[in-house]
Fold this protein.
Amino acid sequence: MIKRVLFNYSHLDLLELQPEYESLLDYDGVRFVLKILPQPNADALTLMYDGRIIACFGYIQVLPGVAEVWLLPSIYMGTCFIPLVKEVDGYLKSTAEIFKWHRIQTVTQDIEQHRKWMQVLGFVEEGVMKKYLKGNDYVMSARYFDWSKP
């Protein structure tokens, strides 16, 4: 069973990050945001499985009704993929409903594994952001909610 714990910046030292995501933590802006969590418009969790950190993830509300979501996956993410998908999906749906977000979005390096992960979670790829950060291409994906329907 996956266990949720409140994210703490020190979890990054314990997270055995998948190698293709390591460059994200080289960017000072990412580390700054992670250091100031939680905030009134942002929160984060660390997910544990079998005593290991499998992912750190969270959100930052960037506009009314819109949140940016992020996830830092560990090398152990595949050991519990289906429960992890259910956990993250449930959290995204319930948090989006609480805050009445009509859009959640994510931006990440153009990594095939991440594109598949976003697709499984119901995100739609909106486009490639050429030379977005450090000359690398990034992909913008979003998921939409309609809270006007019962």
The chain has one domain: 3-144. The first strand starts at residue 3 and ends at 6. The chain has a mean pLDDT of 86. The domain at 3-144 is CATH 3.40.630.30 (Aminopeptidase).
